[in-house]
Amino acid sequence: MNKAIYVIGGGLAGSEAAYQLAKIGYSVKLFEQRPKKSTEAHKTNYLAELVCSNSFKSTELINAHGLLKYELSRYNSLIMEVAEKNNIKGGKALVVDREKFSNDITETLYNNSNIEVIREHITKIDENINTIIATGPLSEKFLANSIGRHLNNDNLYFYDAISPTVIRESIDMSKAFWGSRYNNDDAYLNIPLTKDQYFKLVRMINSAEKADVHDFDKELFFEGCLPVEEIARRGENTLRFGLMKPVGLNSPESFNKPYAIIQLRREDKEGTILNIVGFQTRMKYGEQKRILKSIPALKDVEIVRLGSMHRNTYINAKESLNYNLSLKTKNNIFLAGQITGVEGYIESVMTGFISAIQMDRYIKDRSYYSFSKNTPTGALLGYLFENVSDKIQPMNINFGLFPPIDIKLKKREKRELMVEKAKKWIEKQRVEILQNIEKGF
Fold this sequence. Notes:
The protein folds into 2 domains: 5-155 and 315-438, FAD/NAD(P)-binding domain (3-Layer(bba) Sandwich); 161-309, Elongation Factor Tu (Ef-tu), domain 3. The protein has helices spanning 12-24, 64-74, 78-85, 98-110, 140-147, 195-207, 228-233, 238-241, 285-293, 317-320, 345-363, 376-386, 411-438; strands at 5-8, 28-32, 55-58, 87-88, 93-96, 115-119, 131-133, 156-162, 165-167, 177-178, 188-193, 220-221, 260-266, 273-276, 303-305, 308-314, 326-327, 330-335. With 441 residues, it is α/β, with parallel strands linked by helices. Helix 1 (12-24) packs parallel to helix 11 (345-363) and helix 2 runs parallel beside helix 11 (345-363). The chain contains 13 helices and 18 strands. Strand 4 and strand 5 (93-96) form a beta hairpin.
């Protein structure tokens, strides 16, 4: 083998990339700055730490998120394997025990003889070394210092957010019940609100003092992860028609018909810690405590982690990258993770997988692998490299990115056709990818 490939960043994308390269047979140096230098978002020293939610979203194939997870599983993704191993109750979502998940990823990579994990803060890269940059959504200064001259567009950025987490035992369970929307399991703890309680909550959110987030109101933020106060600002019923909708639940008769529902999701397998779904926020800590404790069921709640916001950096991929995620001006340097313009855990894992197999092809002097747009991977890459917007925003996987089905059918029937077509392409790509990896060894 040639000298080691560098992977900068031990998050989800970097961990997946390092593992895939090591599995092929390459020697990999995986650099992670923690604990020498931490970030405002991370809380542990684990590799592949989940800094926001512990949910990987839907597992249903009829849902684009579920289909993407299926695709990565078929490609033998490390992240998917460990996530499924550490799955906890989450209804139709893949929810994991946060600590056990990251611990297992860390142990797997440390125990791989082809991977050397180096706890070092890298400020600049050697452009002569084959490198995958997977430094995550807080990469602005690193990108500017290391490869800034190779980026022919200004870095873009938006704000992401973290929901508060609380201890279950501190919740008044007489004012809550377990259940999932449209599903007969106990994946979520539901706190019902009356009309008066709901509008009191909205008023408190709207009047709460916000943290100073550097001209936040002038910046772009991702629509799929809006702070709760931004949702509330858009209308007094916006929360009730969205994340707090009181539908699809078999609420006990004692609660009558709830006007709104707050849902909490397990953070660990035992369900001792719960996060408040959709309550990501930039409100000041004191305001968060005051508002949460104003909710009757949370009057005496013990808060483990308050909500916060951090800046996420990403680039305009079509301006600076080749389709294989390498720099247009330096083909041996690849990018992976949210800095490529994708949004979401599994989407980031996908780019880590892609960067690894495309790096392998680059080293073997083969053309890049082209994914069908009928698959989640190809559809999302199509968005990154073929969009026509001047202000591209990060994107989750969704069926709107797939080639349309031009047949007069109901929405679900069209989705089912898309899924069947995707599964056929995924199997074809799986065979081709594995065959190409094996060549030359």
